[in-house]
Design brief:
Elements: H1 2-22, H2 30-33, H3 38-65
Helix pairs in contact: 1-3
Length: 66
C-alpha cells in the first residue's frame, strides 16, 4: 500500500514541479486544492519516492521470509 501512495505522491509532485517551473502553472490534483511553491512539489516528489522504495523493500523482505 505504501508503494501505491508513494507513486501517487511522486506523480503529483512531479506534475506540480514541472508545471510550476517550466510552464504557467502547476498541474495535477494538488494544484486545484493548494497553492504550493515549486520547492514543496519537489519535496512531495522526494517523499513519495521514499515511500515507494520503502514499500518495495518491505515487500521483498516479506517474500524472503515466506
Amino acid at each position: 500500500m505504501r508503494g501505491i501512495i508513494g507513486f501517487i505522491a511522486m506523480l503529483q509532485g512531479a506534475l506540480g514541479f514541472i508545471g510550476k517551473t517550466f510552464f504557467d502553472g502547476a498541474w495535477g490534483l494538488l494544484a486545484h486544492l493548494f497553492d504550493l511553491p515549486s520547492v514543496a512539489y519537489l519535496g512531495l516528489f522526494l517523499a513519495g519516492a521514499a515511500l515507494a522504495v520503502w514499500g518495495d523493500v518491505d515487500k521483498k523482505r516479506k517474500a524472503e521470509r515466506a
